[in-house]
Amino acid sequence: MPEIILLAVCVALFAKYLMLNAPFVPTHKVDLQRIGDMVEHYDIKRLVDLGSGNGRIIGYLAKRFPERNFAGIEIAPLLFSLTKIRFWRMKKIKIILGSVFNHGWRDYDAIFVFWMPKAFEKKIEKIKQRLIQGQVVISYAFPIPGLSDHLVEKNVEVKQLPIYVYKI
Ligand SMILES: C[S@@+](CC[C@H](N)C(=O)[O-])C[C@H]1O[C@@H](n2cnc3c(N)ncnc32)[C@H](O)[C@@H]1O
After folding, report:
1. CA 41, 53, 77: angle at the middle one, nearest 5?
2. Which of 43, 87, 109, 130 could share a disulfide with 93, CB 3.0–4.6 Å?
3. Using an 8 Å Cβ cutoff, are 125 and 150 in contact?
4. For residue 2, how far is its CA from the centre of ligand 1 (angstroms)?
5. 99 touches ligand 1 (CB under 6 Å)
6. 100 lines ligand 1 (CB under 6 A)
7. pLDDT digits 0-9 by tens, 20-54
8. What is residue 18's predicted lDDT score, i.e. its pLDDT?
9. Which pLDDT value is given to residue 13?
10. CATH superfamily of this structure's domain 20-167
């Protein structure tokens, strides 16, 4: 019995270590069109949502751009499973279980993030190491402090959250 408790504590600590400061809050539906317009404007063909939650972003984008490829990486098994079931027939959507830092980002020409500022503060060096030249980074709601030199657009609409676009 004490072994089981010890194991549970270790699993919980490991999960906390891997988790970003990014609790599950989906992107507002009202902002989906603006994000889609950015995918169009920057001619993005393969996008990954880092921490894809319930798949709202990639589901919307895959419907709007059926010929393009979208992926989501999600650490929470329940959200991963629900999303996997939701999109099981959609060949252009790939859902991956695990931490965003345990999977490559190089296969994508764009990255979407909806993380809290604290997550950026803690992980900025890791993020920078993983980005490659030419990639577009779309950050919903919050700017990415360490990438300010790469900022190409700050999209602001009345009563909507800002969206920041970086080109590496
Ligand atoms: C703010 S929600 C954004 C959900 C989705 N991207 C959207 O915009 O609707 C952040 C998501 O990141 C996930 N997450 C947190 N840390 C993660 C990590 N290290 N690797 C993968 N996903 C993570 C959370 O479980 C949560 O679903």
Report:
1. 145
2. 87
3. no
4. 32
5. yes
6. yes
7. 656 788 999 999 999 999 999 999 999 999 999 99
8. 52
9. 47
10. Vaccinia Virus protein VP39 (3.40.50.150)
